[in-house]
Design goal:
The relative contact order is 0.12. The chain has three helices and four strands. The strands form two sheets. A two-stranded parallel ribbon has the order 1-2. Strands 3-4 form a two-stranded antiparallel sheet. β3 and β4 form a beta hairpin. The chain has one domain.
Length: 116
């Protein structure tokens, strides 16, 4: 599969392509329309070799405002809470640049063991 293919799940499942790529690379970069964190379960076994993982995720899934803060969209708030939780658990580096989530050594080990 060329590195620039667009996968829409009609002729093949995205998870199958990702798993195939992850078995032969140390660095992976993906652009997706949306991504749910439980999706990591489907690829976790093939993340063992990956030392750098970058996801460019679209922001069109839940643009509804938070009832408690009408100027904040729900997806951004959810992402911020998820990031904070991962940092507090030591699974992600706290010093990552804005918009980049770097897996910590502890997080990498947890992924290898299938704990996350």
């Amino acid at each position: 599969m060329p590195t620039h293919d667009i996968i829409d799940n009609r002729n093949g499942k995205l998870v199958d392509y990702i798993n195939r790529i992850l078995t032969s690379t140390e660095r992976a970069k993906f652009a997706v329309g949306y991504f749910f964190l439980p999706g990591f379960e489907l690829i976790q076994n093939n993340l063992q070799r990956v030392t750098e993982l970058k996801l460019l995720i679209g922001n069109t899934t839940d643009r509804q405002p938070l009832p408690s803060c009408p100027n904040t969209v729900r997806w951004r708030n959810t992402a911020q809470w998820s990031r904070n939780s991962l940092v507090q658990e030591g699974l992600m580096k706290a010093d990552s640049s804005w918009g980049i989530w770097k897996i910590s050594d502890r997080g990498g080990e947890a992924l290898k063991r299938g704990e996350v």
